[in-house]
Amino acid sequence: IAEGSLPMRYLGIPLITTRLSHMDCRVLVDKLVSRTSPWISNSLSFGGRQLIASVLFSIQVFWCNTFVLPVAVTKECDRIMRSFLWHGVGTSKKGGKIAWSKVCRPKATGGLGFRDSRSWNRAAIMKIGWDISPVTKACSWSWRNILQARRYLSQSVLYEVRDGNSFSLWHDPWVFGASIVNRFGERVIYDSGIPRNSLISRVIREGMWEWPTTSCDLLELNNITAAIPLPAGRDKVHWMKKGGIFSLQQAWLSLIPHSPVVPWAKVVWFPKRIPKHSFCLWLTFCNGHKTLDKLHSIGLSHSDTCIFGCGQRETINHLFFSCPFTASI
Protein backbone atom coordinates (compact mmCIF):
# COMPACT_ATOMS: atom_id res chain seq x y z
CA ILE A 1 0.00 0.00 0.00
CA ALA A 2 1.39 3.37 -1.01
CA GLU A 3 2.17 5.76 1.84
CA GLY A 4 -0.11 8.79 1.90
CA SER A 5 0.51 12.32 3.10
CA LEU A 6 -1.67 14.85 4.87
CA PRO A 7 -4.02 16.42 4.07
CA MET A 8 -6.00 13.51 2.64
CA ARG A 9 -9.49 12.01 2.84
CA TYR A 10 -10.52 8.85 4.64
CA LEU A 11 -14.10 7.54 4.63
CA GLY A 12 -15.13 10.77 2.93
CA ILE A 13 -13.84 13.15 5.60
CA PRO A 14 -10.61 15.17 5.62
CA LEU A 15 -7.62 14.10 7.72
CA ILE A 16 -5.72 17.26 8.61
CA THR A 17 -3.45 18.47 11.39
CA THR A 18 -4.59 22.10 11.33
CA ARG A 19 -7.79 23.93 12.11
CA LEU A 20 -10.76 22.75 10.02
CA SER A 21 -11.65 25.42 7.46
CA HIS A 22 -14.75 26.14 5.41
CA MET A 23 -13.00 24.82 2.30
CA ASP A 24 -12.21 21.53 4.05
CA CYS A 25 -15.96 21.07 4.55
CA ARG A 26 -16.90 22.06 1.02
CA VAL A 27 -17.45 18.42 0.08
CA LEU A 28 -20.17 18.16 2.77
CA VAL A 29 -21.99 21.26 1.51
CA ASP A 30 -21.72 20.12 -2.11
CA LYS A 31 -23.10 16.70 -1.19
CA LEU A 32 -26.14 18.26 0.47
CA VAL A 33 -26.83 20.45 -2.57
CA SER A 34 -26.34 17.57 -5.01
CA ARG A 35 -28.78 15.37 -3.08
CA THR A 36 -31.52 17.99 -3.36
CA SER A 37 -31.17 18.34 -7.15
CA PRO A 38 -32.88 15.04 -8.18
CA TRP A 39 -35.85 15.83 -5.93
CA ILE A 40 -36.59 19.32 -7.31
CA SER A 41 -38.76 18.21 -10.23
CA ASN A 42 -40.82 15.76 -8.18
CA SER A 43 -43.13 18.46 -6.76
CA LEU A 44 -42.96 17.02 -3.27
CA SER A 45 -45.53 18.13 -0.72
CA PHE A 46 -44.42 19.73 2.53
CA GLY A 47 -44.98 16.37 4.20
CA GLY A 48 -42.63 14.69 1.75
CA ARG A 49 -40.03 17.40 2.19
CA GLN A 50 -39.97 16.75 5.93
CA LEU A 51 -38.93 13.16 5.27
CA ILE A 52 -36.33 14.24 2.71
CA ALA A 53 -34.96 16.91 5.08
CA SER A 54 -34.31 14.17 7.64
CA VAL A 55 -32.27 12.36 4.96
CA LEU A 56 -30.28 15.56 4.36
CA PHE A 57 -29.61 15.85 8.09
CA SER A 58 -28.32 12.27 8.26
CA ILE A 59 -25.65 13.14 5.66
CA GLN A 60 -23.96 15.56 8.04
CA VAL A 61 -24.31 13.43 11.19
CA PHE A 62 -20.99 11.62 10.60
CA TRP A 63 -19.20 14.95 10.21
CA CYS A 64 -20.87 16.33 13.35
CA ASN A 65 -19.74 13.27 15.31
CA THR A 66 -16.15 13.66 14.11
CA PHE A 67 -15.32 17.39 13.92
CA VAL A 68 -16.08 20.70 15.54
CA LEU A 69 -17.51 22.20 12.36
CA PRO A 70 -16.91 25.89 11.56
CA VAL A 71 -19.91 28.10 12.32
CA ALA A 72 -20.14 29.13 8.66
CA VAL A 73 -20.50 25.47 7.64
CA THR A 74 -23.27 24.69 10.15
CA LYS A 75 -25.14 27.82 9.02
CA GLU A 76 -24.84 26.76 5.39
CA CYS A 77 -26.08 23.25 6.16
CA ASP A 78 -29.09 24.73 7.96
CA ARG A 79 -29.73 27.10 5.06
CA ILE A 80 -29.81 24.21 2.58
CA MET A 81 -32.27 22.20 4.69
CA ARG A 82 -34.40 25.28 5.40
CA SER A 83 -34.46 26.18 1.70
CA PHE A 84 -35.46 22.66 0.69
CA LEU A 85 -38.20 22.44 3.31
CA TRP A 86 -39.92 25.67 2.28
CA HIS A 87 -39.08 26.00 -1.42
CA GLY A 88 -38.19 22.51 -2.66
CA VAL A 89 -34.66 23.52 -3.69
CA GLY A 90 -31.45 23.65 -1.70
CA THR A 91 -30.15 26.95 -3.03
CA SER A 92 -33.03 29.39 -2.52
CA LYS A 93 -32.31 32.53 -0.49
CA LYS A 94 -35.97 33.25 0.32
CA GLY A 95 -37.23 33.07 3.86
CA GLY A 96 -39.63 30.48 5.26
CA LYS A 97 -43.10 30.70 6.73
CA ILE A 98 -41.87 29.85 10.22
CA ALA A 99 -38.55 30.85 11.81
CA TRP A 100 -35.92 28.10 11.60
CA SER A 101 -35.32 28.32 15.35
CA LYS A 102 -38.96 27.36 15.90
CA VAL A 103 -38.85 24.60 13.27
CA CYS A 104 -35.91 23.11 15.19
CA ARG A 105 -37.86 22.70 18.41
CA PRO A 106 -39.16 19.28 19.51
CA LYS A 107 -42.69 18.54 18.28
CA ALA A 108 -44.01 18.62 21.84
CA THR A 109 -42.97 22.28 22.16
CA GLY A 110 -44.38 23.45 18.83
CA GLY A 111 -41.62 22.63 16.34
CA LEU A 112 -41.11 20.05 13.61
CA GLY A 113 -38.48 18.11 15.54
CA PHE A 114 -35.64 19.16 13.21
CA ARG A 115 -32.18 19.64 14.73
CA ASP A 116 -30.10 22.69 13.95
CA SER A 117 -26.59 21.75 12.89
CA ARG A 118 -24.76 23.91 15.43
CA SER A 119 -26.47 22.52 18.52
CA TRP A 120 -26.32 18.95 17.24
CA ASN A 121 -22.60 19.32 16.51
CA ARG A 122 -22.03 20.52 20.07
CA ALA A 123 -24.08 17.64 21.48
CA ALA A 124 -22.08 15.12 19.42
CA ILE A 125 -18.79 16.61 20.59
CA MET A 126 -20.05 16.50 24.18
CA LYS A 127 -20.20 12.73 23.78
CA ILE A 128 -16.51 12.69 22.85
CA GLY A 129 -15.69 15.04 25.70
CA TRP A 130 -17.48 12.82 28.23
CA ASP A 131 -15.17 12.20 31.19
CA ILE A 132 -11.79 12.90 29.60
CA SER A 133 -8.57 14.61 30.62
CA PRO A 134 -7.98 18.36 31.19
CA VAL A 135 -7.20 20.84 28.43
CA THR A 136 -3.53 21.67 27.89
CA LYS A 137 -1.85 24.06 25.49
CA ALA A 138 0.03 21.12 23.96
CA CYS A 139 -3.24 19.71 22.59
CA SER A 140 -4.15 20.23 18.94
CA TRP A 141 -6.83 22.77 17.97
CA SER A 142 -9.38 20.01 17.32
CA TRP A 143 -8.67 18.27 20.62
CA ARG A 144 -8.89 21.52 22.60
CA ASN A 145 -12.30 22.23 21.06
CA ILE A 146 -13.49 18.74 21.92
CA LEU A 147 -12.36 19.20 25.52
CA GLN A 148 -13.96 22.63 25.73
CA ALA A 149 -17.33 20.93 25.15
CA ARG A 150 -17.14 19.84 28.79
CA ARG A 151 -18.40 23.25 29.89
CA TYR A 152 -21.76 22.28 28.35
CA LEU A 153 -21.54 18.89 30.05
CA SER A 154 -21.11 20.42 33.50
CA GLN A 155 -24.70 21.70 33.44
CA SER A 156 -26.10 18.17 33.16
CA VAL A 157 -23.46 15.95 34.77
CA LEU A 158 -23.72 14.66 38.33
CA TYR A 159 -20.43 13.72 40.01
CA GLU A 160 -20.68 11.04 42.70
CA VAL A 161 -17.58 10.96 44.89
CA ARG A 162 -16.63 7.61 46.39
CA ASP A 163 -12.92 6.78 46.63
CA GLY A 164 -11.93 10.16 45.11
CA ASN A 165 -9.40 8.71 42.66
CA SER A 166 -11.10 9.86 39.44
CA PHE A 167 -11.95 13.56 39.88
CA SER A 168 -9.85 16.70 40.14
CA LEU A 169 -10.06 18.15 43.63
CA TRP A 170 -10.04 21.77 42.52
CA HIS A 171 -11.40 21.87 38.97
CA ASP A 172 -14.13 19.24 38.52
CA PRO A 173 -17.68 20.38 39.47
CA TRP A 174 -18.28 17.82 42.21
CA VAL A 175 -19.37 20.18 45.01
CA PHE A 176 -23.11 20.35 44.34
CA GLY A 177 -22.56 21.10 40.65
CA ALA A 178 -19.67 23.57 41.01
CA SER A 179 -15.90 23.30 41.19
CA ILE A 180 -14.05 24.54 44.26
CA VAL A 181 -12.05 27.04 42.19
CA ASN A 182 -15.22 28.55 40.70
CA ARG A 183 -16.83 28.73 44.10
CA PHE A 184 -13.95 30.03 46.24
CA GLY A 185 -11.35 31.30 43.77
CA GLU A 186 -7.69 30.43 43.24
CA ARG A 187 -6.68 31.61 46.72
CA VAL A 188 -8.10 28.51 48.37
CA ILE A 189 -5.52 26.33 46.58
CA TYR A 190 -2.67 28.42 47.97
CA ASP A 191 -4.16 28.44 51.49
CA SER A 192 -4.54 24.67 51.54
CA GLY A 193 -0.99 23.84 50.47
CA ILE A 194 -2.41 21.03 48.32
CA PRO A 195 -1.06 20.82 44.73
CA ARG A 196 -3.25 22.09 41.91
CA ASN A 197 -3.32 18.70 40.14
CA SER A 198 -4.48 16.74 43.19
CA LEU A 199 -7.40 14.32 43.15
CA ILE A 200 -10.23 14.35 45.68
CA SER A 201 -8.68 11.36 47.43
CA ARG A 202 -6.08 13.80 48.81
CA VAL A 203 -8.64 15.05 51.35
CA ILE A 204 -10.22 11.66 52.15
CA ARG A 205 -8.89 9.44 54.92
CA GLU A 206 -10.54 6.16 55.92
CA GLY A 207 -13.85 7.12 54.33
CA MET A 208 -13.99 10.55 56.01
CA TRP A 209 -13.30 14.09 54.82
CA GLU A 210 -10.04 15.56 56.11
CA TRP A 211 -9.49 19.18 55.06
CA PRO A 212 -6.78 21.55 56.27
CA THR A 213 -8.27 24.34 58.35
CA THR A 214 -5.85 27.17 57.61
CA SER A 215 -8.40 29.69 56.27
CA CYS A 216 -12.06 30.69 56.55
CA ASP A 217 -12.75 29.34 53.05
CA LEU A 218 -11.32 25.95 53.96
CA LEU A 219 -13.41 25.85 57.15
CA GLU A 220 -16.51 26.63 55.09
CA LEU A 221 -15.50 24.00 52.54
CA ASN A 222 -15.14 21.46 55.34
CA ASN A 223 -18.68 22.22 56.51
CA ILE A 224 -20.10 22.01 52.97
CA THR A 225 -18.50 18.68 52.10
CA ALA A 226 -19.57 17.18 55.41
CA ALA A 227 -23.01 16.82 53.79
CA ILE A 228 -21.55 14.78 50.90
CA PRO A 229 -21.53 11.04 51.72
CA LEU A 230 -18.58 8.84 50.76
CA PRO A 231 -19.91 5.37 49.88
CA ALA A 232 -17.47 2.56 49.13
CA GLY A 233 -16.39 1.88 45.56
CA ARG A 234 -15.08 3.85 42.59
CA ASP A 235 -16.19 7.37 41.65
CA LYS A 236 -19.10 7.60 39.21
CA VAL A 237 -20.38 10.13 36.69
CA HIS A 238 -24.13 10.28 36.03
CA TRP A 239 -26.08 12.04 33.29
CA MET A 240 -28.61 14.48 34.79
CA LYS A 241 -29.56 12.14 37.66
CA LYS A 242 -28.16 9.17 39.56
CA GLY A 243 -28.08 6.17 37.27
CA GLY A 244 -28.55 8.34 34.18
CA ILE A 245 -26.65 7.37 31.02
CA PHE A 246 -25.42 9.89 28.44
CA SER A 247 -27.88 10.35 25.58
CA LEU A 248 -27.13 12.34 22.44
CA GLN A 249 -30.80 13.34 22.18
CA GLN A 250 -30.87 14.57 25.79
CA ALA A 251 -27.58 16.39 25.27
CA TRP A 252 -29.09 18.22 22.28
CA LEU A 253 -32.20 19.11 24.28
CA SER A 254 -29.99 20.55 27.03
CA LEU A 255 -28.35 22.91 24.51
CA ILE A 256 -31.41 24.37 22.77
CA PRO A 257 -33.55 27.12 24.37
CA HIS A 258 -36.25 25.74 26.63
CA SER A 259 -39.82 26.08 25.34
CA PRO A 260 -43.06 25.10 27.09
CA VAL A 261 -45.02 22.09 25.87
CA VAL A 262 -47.87 23.15 23.56
CA PRO A 263 -51.34 21.69 24.26
CA TRP A 264 -52.01 20.91 20.59
CA ALA A 265 -48.97 18.73 19.85
CA LYS A 266 -50.86 15.42 20.08
CA VAL A 267 -53.64 16.81 17.87
CA VAL A 268 -51.10 17.38 15.09
CA TRP A 269 -48.62 14.54 15.59
CA PHE A 270 -50.49 11.30 16.14
CA PRO A 271 -49.95 7.73 14.87
CA LYS A 272 -51.07 6.98 11.29
CA ARG A 273 -51.36 10.67 10.47
CA ILE A 274 -51.14 11.96 6.90
CA PRO A 275 -47.89 14.00 6.85
CA LYS A 276 -49.05 16.82 4.56
CA HIS A 277 -52.26 17.27 6.60
CA SER A 278 -50.31 17.37 9.86
CA PHE A 279 -47.91 19.90 8.36
CA CYS A 280 -50.80 22.12 7.25
CA LEU A 281 -52.37 21.92 10.71
CA TRP A 282 -48.99 22.69 12.31
CA LEU A 283 -48.73 25.82 10.14
CA THR A 284 -52.21 26.80 11.30
CA PHE A 285 -51.33 26.58 14.99
CA CYS A 286 -48.08 28.47 14.32
CA ASN A 287 -49.90 31.18 12.35
CA GLY A 288 -47.70 30.40 9.36
CA HIS A 289 -50.17 30.45 6.46
CA LYS A 290 -49.90 33.43 4.11
CA THR A 291 -53.45 34.65 4.51
CA LEU A 292 -54.66 37.83 2.83
CA ASP A 293 -54.30 39.94 5.98
CA LYS A 294 -50.56 39.22 5.96
CA LEU A 295 -50.14 39.72 2.22
CA HIS A 296 -52.10 43.00 2.38
CA SER A 297 -49.94 44.31 5.24
CA ILE A 298 -46.76 43.93 3.12
CA GLY A 299 -48.29 45.28 -0.07
CA LEU A 300 -48.67 42.00 -1.96
CA SER A 301 -52.47 42.11 -2.06
CA HIS A 302 -54.90 44.95 -2.78
CA SER A 303 -57.45 43.65 -0.30
CA ASP A 304 -57.57 41.56 2.86
CA THR A 305 -61.21 40.55 2.37
CA CYS A 306 -61.95 36.82 2.47
CA ILE A 307 -61.83 35.28 -1.02
CA PHE A 308 -64.91 33.16 -0.27
CA GLY A 309 -67.14 36.25 -0.44
CA CYS A 310 -68.30 36.53 3.16
CA GLY A 311 -67.05 40.13 3.37
CA GLN A 312 -64.91 39.61 6.47
CA ARG A 313 -61.17 40.07 6.91
CA GLU A 314 -59.21 36.92 6.04
CA THR A 315 -57.11 35.82 9.01
CA ILE A 316 -56.01 32.40 10.22
CA ASN A 317 -58.83 32.23 12.77
CA HIS A 318 -61.42 33.43 10.27
CA LEU A 319 -60.31 31.08 7.49
CA PHE A 320 -60.32 27.93 9.62
CA PHE A 321 -62.93 28.61 12.29
CA SER A 322 -65.42 31.39 11.49
CA CYS A 323 -65.77 31.61 7.70
CA PRO A 324 -69.28 30.41 6.65
CA PHE A 325 -67.87 28.74 3.54
CA THR A 326 -65.23 26.66 5.34
CA ALA A 327 -67.73 25.81 8.08
CA SER A 328 -70.02 24.28 5.46
CA ILE A 329 -67.33 21.94 4.10
UniProtKB/TrEMBL annotation:
Signal peptide: none
Coiled coil: none
Domain of life: Eukaryota
UniProt-listed Pfam families: zf-RVT
Domain Reverse transcriptase zinc-binding, residue spans: 246-328
InterPro entries, per the entry: RVT-Znf
Protein name, per record: Zf-RVT domain-containing protein
